[in-house]
Amino acid sequence: MTKFPITDLRGLLLQPSRRELLKGAGALAGAAALSGLLPDGAVAQENVLNILSWPGHGDPAFVKPFEDQYGVKVVAKEYVGGEPMLALMNQSPPGSFDVVLADAEYIGMLQEGGFIDEMDPADYPLADYWPEFQKFPLHWQDDKLYSVLIRFGYLGLAYRTDMLSPEDVQSYEALWNEKVKGKVGFFDWYLPTMGCLSLYNGNRPPFDIDDAAFDTLKETLFSLRPQASGFYSMADQFAMLTNGTAAIIPGIGDWVVLLLQNEGVPVDAVVPEQGGIQWTESMSIVSSSTKKDLAKKFIQYASSPEGQFRSARLPAYWASIPNKKGWELMNEQAPEDAKKLRHTFDARNVMDEYKEGKIFIRQTPVQQDIETWNDTWSEFKAM
């Protein structure tokens, strides 16, 4: 696992200082954590559960049943990207958060940094999960559980169906197609795009590559610069696909296109023949929380059939869910949505590509450090 500095909540420096994490983008995230993090007095209120998450997870569509059941308020602080999440955890006062929703590739760092607690597997409905996710590797350290998988999805190519055909996007080669010259958009985060391009280069797994393979990956990435239309935030990707500024975006998938399809935008997503990347969102109990029992109850709700059903259709962006009973509930109450998410039992579904070995878990770099990949991405953007 890639290591970089994390100061735990007791102020112990666990690893040598890293040049950029707590400066630059991390400092902005930390400043947000220290100023106006929550409404006045919210941290001290016993009936408030504070969560740190990707956008949308505090939406009433998801949290209201939990709030009503326990007579509490869920307050979410949002971030985009793993490094800003780590900076917020690192720089926020102890007790700022009770639950953190993080990508699986960062769970080990949170555990090493002393930010999250060990969890009892018996407290959560893991037996109801698809077998592939009952002991998801990045959530366990030394056979101890530190996070529970809530949502996942696959990253490959998202594209405008009025500009490219299904045949065009069977391979990542589509990114160099003359049809999309100047219209290749990029989610402004190095991991998704570089992971998919690493698969295009034949690296399986895509994030554990030697320096020679990494040099080739840089060449592949840089060769796309003449095709680029821009580098987009999470929200901007929806807009750019909608207005056609971007005809194709690597490193994203159904989480973007399903909502746009519901609005009538001619878009689709595909896992090309070289494979795709799996993203995950998982919940952990923050070690400095003073409301750990409530935090546990919230994660129990989020992993339950009802919580899973609601989380899958989060208004901010849809996602796949690992709980089979959540699938059953969706097929009973929203069968058309189950079809859109490919959460059906009588037809090809999202688990098939996983079982076929086409999907690789997103990780931070293994043989290089995070900074090397991130600096390469910055160089690409500046070309």
TrEMBL record:
This is Family 1 extracellular solute-binding protein. GO terms for cellular component: periplasmic space. The lineage of its organism: Bacteria, Pseudomonadati, Pseudomonadota, Alphaproteobacteria, Hyphomicrobiales. The keyword Transmembrane does not apply. It comes from the Bacteria. PANTHER family: SPERMIDINE/PUTRESCINE-BINDING PERIPLASMIC PROTEIN (PTHR30222), SPERMIDINE_PUTRESCINE-BINDING PERIPLASMIC PROTEIN (PTHR30222:SF17). It is found in: Periplasm. It holds the Pfam family SBP_bac_8. One of its GO terms (biological process) is polyamine transport. One of its GO terms (molecular function) is polyamine binding. Keywords: Periplasm, Signal, Transport. InterPro entries: SBP, Sperm_putr-bd, TAT_signal, TAT_signal_bac_arc. Its main location: periplasm.
